[in-house]
């Protein structure tokens, strides 16, 4: 493993001057650009600003204005005013804003690639995953949202005499709480469909990676989004979380399962809607007929993209006993060849972890597994020579139930490989978890792969791919089963969740009650015959 840059200092230094690159990362945008983006934050007069360190260097990125409770409530008041006019825009006009945004994202991607790398510590190829996902989401809803939101006619209770339709209304103001690990893509997946549906949005991105969300916010307004239809606030959840929950007409949250459960309890008291994308312990099943080299290559991407800090990353691999040893050798070889680095180019295959907390959690899990008898076949140690938060991509075998990572989510570049004897065992072990977010199946027989995939209790399952096939297909829903979440993002579901369905029916001529003077028993008999006849008609 090699680095593309010299070792970086592990402690934050003095704040960089206006001409210095963001976070002290060579080649990054100038600090003044970061300061320009922070001026897009809707609040920040009532609380002291905070400064987050760049993962690659440990140096400060920029001062971020922090909101107080009362400020956030004022932001929601303004959002409600703007939402009324935004909802009056024809759905096709709102679509055009998203299509222009998709073009801007692709045209100006170099700047945000730098920002994502500097804020999150990603390799550039992983930062590009965010750019491509953002453009795909904007394009999908830019092409399809008007159709999905259109009034839908339904067969009435009495043919010809009853006209019924389903109308979609925006929820109002949507509160979006975004995580630090995928700051651009998850912002797009959660904010853009809410806007397309005619809602206003108040978003709270994580302080660590707020600049990426603010960059997309800037481009959205350049694409024609009215000012204040989407507002961004920053602050700790303990300081402004209650205001977001209490003022939102719908809450979209991505984060840990414990936090999601607490939020769900708060939101339930107000009887407002919510969607939660939470934790995962995602399995990969390698069937005996799989191409071992192809599966090993896929595992490297599935396990170590974004240094494993991805909700759909694979952390468990079940390999048939007939190819287990061969697979472990291939995976260890490919993992050992993965290049680590912090350069703002496409040279490195993996970047660093994002925070000191994540580094500590990953180190603790690996050390605990080793103490419980696991064998480290690749990686297994931090790399301070490359930067303060680098940790080698790690492959473990012999992990027992005594190890914490046997069941707990690591959220880092660590995967455990297990052997199995038959497919039923593999499926049972894949499902032996409280989580159900993503899964992967590898085989030469695509039909067999689909059969196995349907038996795994996960919101998304990829055959011969780790996560990208479902992640990049915006037309299908993404979300978790069991304790991995509630609700879906992407597809029609990711749009319609931000709406209220209203049924409107117009009755002409006959009422749905007996005629004057008609015996109720005779009316009931006639209606029963009519319902039976309708059942035989097509499309009823």
Automatic annotation (TrEMBL):
Region (Disordered): 1-32
Domain Aldehyde dehydrogenase span(s) in chain numbering: 54-504
EC number(s) reported in the record: 1.2.1.16, 1.2.1.20, 1.2.1.79
Start-end of Pro residues biased regions: 1-10
A single GO molecular function term of this UniProt record: glutarate-semialdehyde dehydrogenase (NADP+) activity
Active-site residues, record numbering mapped to chain: 277
Bilayer-crossing regions: none
Presence of keyword Zinc: no
NCBIfam families: PRK09407.1
Family: Belongs to the aldehyde dehydrogenase family.
Name of the protein described by the UniProt record: Succinate-semialdehyde dehydrogenase/glutarate-semialdehyde dehydrogenase
Taxonomic source organism: Prauserella isguenensis
């Amino acid at each position: 493993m090699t680095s593309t840059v010299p070792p970086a200092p592990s402690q934050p230094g003095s704040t960089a001057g206006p001409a210095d690159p963001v976070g002290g990362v060579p080649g990054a945008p100038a600090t003044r650009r970061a300061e320009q983006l922070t001026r897009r934050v809707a609040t920040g007069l009532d609380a002291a600003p905070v400064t987050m360190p760049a993962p690659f260097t440990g140096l400060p990125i920029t001062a971020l204005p922090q909101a107080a409770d009362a400020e956030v409530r004022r932001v929601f008041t303004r959002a409600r005013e703007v939402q009324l006019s935004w909802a009056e825009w024809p759905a096709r006009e709102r679509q055009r804003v998203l299509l222009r945004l998709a073009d801007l994202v692709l045209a100006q991607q170099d700047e945000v690639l730098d920002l994502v790398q500097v804020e999150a510590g990603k390799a550039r190829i992983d930062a590009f995953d965010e750019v491509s996902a953002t453009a795909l989401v904007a394009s999908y809803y830019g092409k399809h949202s008007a159709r999905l939101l259109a009034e839908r006619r339904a067969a009435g209770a009495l043919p010809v005499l009853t006209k019924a339709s389903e109308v979609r209304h925006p929820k109002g103001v949507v509160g979006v709480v975004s995580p630090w690990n995928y700051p651009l893509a998850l912002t797009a997946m959660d904010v853009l469909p809410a806007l397309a549906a005619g809602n206003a949005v108040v978003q709270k991105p994580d302080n660590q990676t707020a600049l990426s969300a603010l960059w997309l916010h800037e481009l959205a307004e350049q694409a024609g989004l009215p000012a204040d239809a989407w507002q961004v606030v920053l602050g700790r959840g303990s300081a402004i979380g209650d205001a977001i929950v209490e003022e939102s007409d719908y809450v979209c949250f991505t984060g840990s399962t414990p936090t999601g459960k607490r939020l769900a309890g708060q939101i339930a008291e107000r009887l407002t809607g919510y969607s939660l994308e939470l934790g995962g312990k995602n399995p990969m099943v390698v069937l005996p007929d799989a191409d071992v080299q192809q599966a090993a290559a896929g595992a490297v991407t599935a396990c170590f993209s974004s240094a494993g800090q991805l909700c759909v990353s694979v952390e468990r691999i079940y390999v048939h006993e007939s190819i287990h040893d061969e697979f472990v050798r291939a995976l260890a070889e490919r993992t050992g060849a993965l290049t680590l680095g912090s350069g703002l180019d496409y040279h490195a295959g993996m970047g660093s972890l994002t925070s000191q907390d994540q580094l500590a959690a990953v180190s603790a899990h690996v050390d605990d597994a080793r103490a419980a008898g696991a064998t480290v076949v690749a990686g297994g140690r931090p790399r301070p020579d490359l930067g303060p938060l680098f940790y080698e991509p790690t492959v473990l075998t012999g992990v027992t139930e005594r190890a914490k990572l046997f069941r707990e989510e690591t959220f880092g570049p660590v995967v455990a490989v297990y052997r199995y004897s038959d497919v039923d065992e593999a499926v049972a072990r894949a499902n032996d978890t409280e989580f159900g977010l993503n899964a992967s199946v590898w085989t030469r027989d695509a039909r067999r792969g689909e059969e196995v995939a349907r038996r795994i209790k996960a919101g998304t399952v990829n055959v011969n791919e780790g996560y990208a096939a479902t992640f990049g297909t915006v037309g299908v829903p993404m979300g978790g089963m069991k304790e991995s979440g509630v609700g879906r993002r992407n597809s029609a579901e990711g749009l319609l969740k931000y709406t209220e369905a209203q049924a409107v029916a117009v009755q002409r001529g006959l009422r749905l009650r007996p005629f004057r003077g008609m015996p109720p028993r005779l009316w009931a008999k006639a209606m029963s015959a009519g319902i039976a006849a309708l059942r035989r008609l097509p499309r009823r």
